[in-house]
Amino acid sequence: MRLLAEGLSARRGEDLIFNDISFALAAGEALIVTGPNGSGKSTLLRVLAGLLQAESGRLRLEGGPSEFEHPYELSHYLGHRNAMKRELTVEENLSFWQRFMGDSPGGSGVDVAAAAAAVGLSDIAHLPFGYLSAGQQRRMAMAKLLVAYRPIWLLDEPTAALDAGADRLFSGLVITHLHRGGIVVAATHQPLRLERTQALQMKGFAH
Ligand SMILES: Nc1ncnc2c1ncn2[C@@H]1O[C@H](COP(=O)(O)OP(=O)(O)OP(=O)(O)O)[C@@H](O)[C@H]1O
Predict the structure, then answer these.
(1) Mutation probe of ligand 1 site: the residue of 17, 21, 205 with most atoms within 8 A of C-beta
(2) Which helix or strand (DSSP H or E) is residue 164 part of?
(3) Mean pLDDT of all residues in 153-182
(4) For the chain, does the N or the C end have fewer beta carbons within 10 angstroms?
């Protein structure tokens, strides 16, 4: 399967945020998106995730399951926020995401306990999400990627608030996903230590 972006541009309000972005990612490849604050990294990821409409250009999948037309149908999106309910326990949050997302064809997610263990937080999975520290909350958001299988991972500053150990752990999860034929697009200021990567430097427009 390949993820193709062809001549994408996006607007927020009056402003054109980026113009004519193209890339092609094969199974096992990652695109690392860098650029200064406000250059449009989050905007690009939101377009890829189907949360914002592109002003022009096209996104498509080549060689994927035929019933899926838009890449977001096969994607996990990890945004700046963790998308967990503070008053529900970690287990309840992850169970919700597991049921809500479901597995894409070609793989299956791990159970909630295994996902919590994979991010090193089995001991606190019974606690309300709101009790966790910022770094623990980010780890749990990573576990969401594991409970339902999606071949494409869209990651916005995934390692924000993570300590060095969690940073390595997260790189490991991403590398495993790529080795299994996944595709990753990550906006990040920190290196994820990946092998097969393409780089996209966002420059933004001067207003
Ligand atoms: N809802 C919105 N309405 C209007 N402008 C917006 C909106 N959201 C973002 N912008 C603008 O779009 C531009 C790109 O923002 P974006 O969040 O994509 O940048 P970024 O590269 O991810 O930045 P950062 O590194 O700070 O996270 C910024 O100038 C921002 O002010």
Answers:
(1) 17
(2) helix 164-179
(3) 89
(4) C
